[in-house]
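Worked example 3 (structure in, sequence out).
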């Protein structure tokens, strides 16, 4: 892995950790305000929901790797390496193509929400939902890059970080 990719991954992990830390702090504020001071504050729920949304899609776009995803690969693991490569190419093209086909509608939906604001914090909803657009673009790039690597002969198990060891996948 190149230095730039390692650095970008490190920054993405740091941002995810900051969002998770922020979510935890806001959650604690919510608990303390409600149960210790008996004075609930309404902004904490909206902040938690927004941070959670951003954390999930940020993590999906920049932090998770292929081996982090749940798979049902009984059929995949039972076929020869050449067939596995075909399965991997077809699935990468299908996932990337599906996200690419959905991008115009995704952008339209996000753009539509520029006229609305969140109920308590007043954040424009296009900003809140923009993380999904970034996630979708990253999925297109990731899976088309994966398709290109597979078409050039890369081993799917090596790309996934799932090299076989004693007949079992390393997880």
């Amino acid at each position: 892995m190149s230095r730039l990719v390692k650095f970008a991954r490190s920054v993405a992990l740091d941002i995810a950790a900051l969002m998770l830390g922020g979510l935890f702090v806001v959650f604690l504020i919510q608990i303390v305000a409600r149960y210790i001071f008996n004075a609930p504050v309404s902004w904490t729920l909206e902040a938690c929901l927004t941070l959670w949304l951003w954390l999930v899609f940020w993590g999906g776009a920049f932090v998770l790797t292929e081996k982090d995803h749940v798979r049902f690969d009984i059929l995949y693991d039972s076929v020869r390496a050449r067939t596995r490569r075909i399965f991997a190419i077809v699935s990468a093209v299908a996932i990337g193509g599906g996200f690419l086909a959905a991008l115009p509608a995704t952008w339209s939906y996000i753009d539509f929400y520029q006229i609305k604001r969140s109920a308590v914090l007043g954040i424009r909803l296009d900003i809140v939902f923009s993380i999904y657009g970034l996630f979708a673009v990253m999925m297109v790039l990731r899976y088309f890059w994966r398709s290109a690597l597979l078409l050039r002969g890369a081993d799917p198990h090596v790309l996934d970080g799932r090299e076989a060891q004693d007949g079992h996948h390393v997880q």
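Notes: The radius of gyration is 20 Å. The beta strands are 164-165, 168-169.
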